[in-house]
Amino acid sequence: MRSSTRFIPGEQIDDISQWRFHGVDAASLLLAARKDVRDVPPTPTPEAIREEAYAEGFAQGHAQATLEGQRQIKDQIDNQGAEAAKRFAEIFESAKIQLEELEQVMARGVLDLACELARQVLRHELAVNPHALQPVVREALGLLTTDGKGAVVRLNSLDLEVLEDPLREEFAGLALTFVADAAVARGGCLVESAGAVVDGGLEKRWMRAIANLGLSTPWEEPVNEQ
Length: 226
Known about the structure:
alpha+beta; 226 residues; 5 helices; 4-stranded mixed beta sheet; hypothetical protein PF0899 fold; 2 domains
């Protein structure tokens, strides 16, 4: 092997210090070595590994169970909310139907009351003013005597006493025959001409009037036999 020597000029050397070898402290080296050994973590035992794995598994299982429990609670709350909303809708619809039925009952009650009042007013009018029947007879004669033919007018005897003269005077150009008919209730009339008949009975007129209101209440309420 060849050795080589490199010469360094003095102008390239800035400073010179003397290197001295000191004695090696064996105790210090041993202490440092022990410290390094202590800093190295001990190798875990199988029991420690199992415990750590158990702890990690328990923590993961607990977290998963917590999430699953929260999901189930949320689903239950959502289902209960949906069921409550459905039940509320059913209750609301039922209440709406009952309210509509109640309104119909109330409306029917108001109509029945109005009909009863009208019946009482009409009876009073016929009792104090027999001439209230005269427009009815006039209308019936107008329907049947357009060609000037004669007519037969059937009235209750009490109405006939009051209306015969005024009607003969009003329809002087017609050949009218007045007949007292007990089958004709007071306040009504029956007019016949050339085979045609106009029923101006009070019951008929009453039923036609209330039919426009959707009712069918008779003029005279049936008497309950005991």
